[in-house]
Amino acid sequence: AAAAAAMSPPPPERGAGAGAGAGAGPGPGDEAQRRYRDLFSRLDTNQDGRIDVGELRAALRARGLGADAQAKILNSGDSNADQELDFKEFANYLREHEKKLRLAFKSLDKNNDGRIDTVEIVQSLKSLGIDISPQNAKKILHSMDEDGTMTVDWNEWRDHFTFNPATSIQEIIQFWKHSTVLDIGDSLTIPDEFTEEEKRSGMWWRQLLSGAAAGAVSRTGTAPLDRLKVLMQVHASKTNQMSMFGGFKQMLKEGGAISLWRGNGMNVAKIAPETAIKFMAYEQYKKLIAANCENIRTHERFIAGSLAGATAQTSIYPMEVMKTRMALRKTGQYAGVGDCVKKIWRNEGLIAFYKGYIPNILGIIPYAGIDLAIYETLKQTWLTRYAKDSANPGILVLLSCGTISSTCGQLASYPLALVRTRMQAQASLEGAQQRSMVQLFRDIVAKEGPLGLYRGLAPNFMKVIPAVSISYVVYERMRIALGMNPV
Q: Could you give the CA distance from residue 468 to residue 473 in angstroms, rounded to a whole number?
């Protein structure tokens, strides 16, 4: 109870009327200093003139905020890095934080009347690709409205976000971007949306870099399962009954523990060029397709994202072939990546670097379409049924929605991915007949039935949860290291 009382902001000062405080923000004057001093004394429960980590943690927990908020406040306010805030540090943090809150408030107050209403909240969410009803906007507004007017003035806005790491509703809604934080091994998802402010501030490249680093670590951590998936896609059949345990045993016997990571180097190396090309292509396709780039509709995003994915895949597809060949190689078959390129070029020609290209491109449509459709459905369901006091879904809901939608997309496109892998590997298999995509489909179904199109699915799904977990942890660390707010 004491912690909750400590975090309760002092009553808002509205002067002569409700809108009096809306026009002028806090400055270095006496009123602001009194407010800072009053809040400081509430948090400083032992009255030693400092807010230590324990006091800050207890107060934030009473507000439903965790370690991320604590880290942000200390990083911003603790100038001497002693893990405590004296009054000067505390006041400086609040002053700088309120400047950002003031800018956010003005950006939301579309009609400049000093208040934010439900219409303005709906417009702000719509600009980020989220359509909610006025009823749901009222729920969000109610969490900040202290005087029951169903509008939020500057004082209510400031008091609500005093210790919240987010500085605007837009920042909270960024949670609902289908973020690159989720890397489950495939790169067929539709790129993220970035606002003009994010592009100007450089936030876009920091987020892309964080996502790329998360993907690299995640793919490396789950590489043994990924290589097993490739082996089972190419070699497993009804006759040999290749199991996961048997596959791991075969890899360890043939090349030792290090062989579990064959092909991972190329799998990681292709992240950067693919991400960059897809992002740039998406921005260009969006300009051509979307009626309004600032408020792109779902079907426009799907078309632009699919075309961007196809462009990126076309550009880096030889690396996809190399990844498969390196994963399937036997000990001593290639001296390295360069040697692999030379031998493929000499023995098979340029066309070999684009084997499996057609099923790979076709796979983008079901993957991206189902991924986006399910994510949008889950998002709207959560906002409609559970967004009672805030639009912030929490990281568990975010990761669950993203994981479910990506997994469904992967499941829908898996037969095409299997045929692509077999086409990439055909020339490296002794005595293998070179078949087309249609011939491979027919042969697999005739010999093994429809389930034959899902060989390797078990290790593929087994890597989803560790891949998402690793991605999220690394993504968070990268965001903090690059000066971004934690998710």
A: 9
CB-side exposure of 123: number of CA atoms within 13 Å? 10
Assign residue 81 a region (left: φ > 0; alpha: ψ between -120 and 50; beta: otherwise): left
**Pairwise CA distance, residues 418 & 416, whole Å:** 5
CB 296 within 8 A of CB 304: yes
Residue 193: name the closest of 175, 210, 214 by CA.
175
Alpha carbons 166 and 160: distance in angstroms, whole number:
10
Tell me which residue of 452, 418, 240, 427 sits closest to 329, measured CA to CA: 427
Cα atoms in the 13 Å half-sphere on the side-chain side of 371: 29
| Distance in angstroms between the alpha carbons of the first and the last residue of the chain | 28
Across-strand partners of 50?
86
Say which range, 175-179, 244-248, 325-329, has the weakest mean pLDDT.
175-179
pLDDT tens for 249-269 read 999 999 999 999 999 999 999
Structural tokens at position 279: 């992002």
CA distances from 303 to 30, 233, 282 (A): 56, 30, 10
- On the CB side of 276, how many CA atoms lie within 13 Å of its CA? 8
Find, among 343, 367, 418, 379, the residue nearest to 132 by Cα: 379
Helices (H) and strands (E) in the chain, counts: 22, 4
Cβ neighbour number for residue 411 with a 10 Å cutoff: 16
Q: In terms of DSSP bridges, do strands 84-86 and 50-52 run parallel, antiparallel, or are they unpaired?
A: antiparallel
Q: What is the pLDDT of residue 388?
A: 57
Please give the angle made by the CA atoms of 469, 474 and 478, to the nearest 5 degrees: 150
Q: What is the pLDDT of residues 29-81, one digit of tens each?
A: 678 888 888 888 888 888 888 888 888 888 777 766 666 677 778 877 888 88
Distance from C-alpha of 101 to C-alpha of 119, rounded to nearest angstrom: 20
Amino acid letter, residue 371: D
Name the token pair of 162.
């005093």
pLDDT greater than 60 at residue 175: no
What is the C-alpha separation between 378 and 440, in angstroms, rounded?
Answer: 36
Q: Where are the alpha helices (DSSP H) in 166-242?
A: 169-173, 196-201, 203-221, 223-235
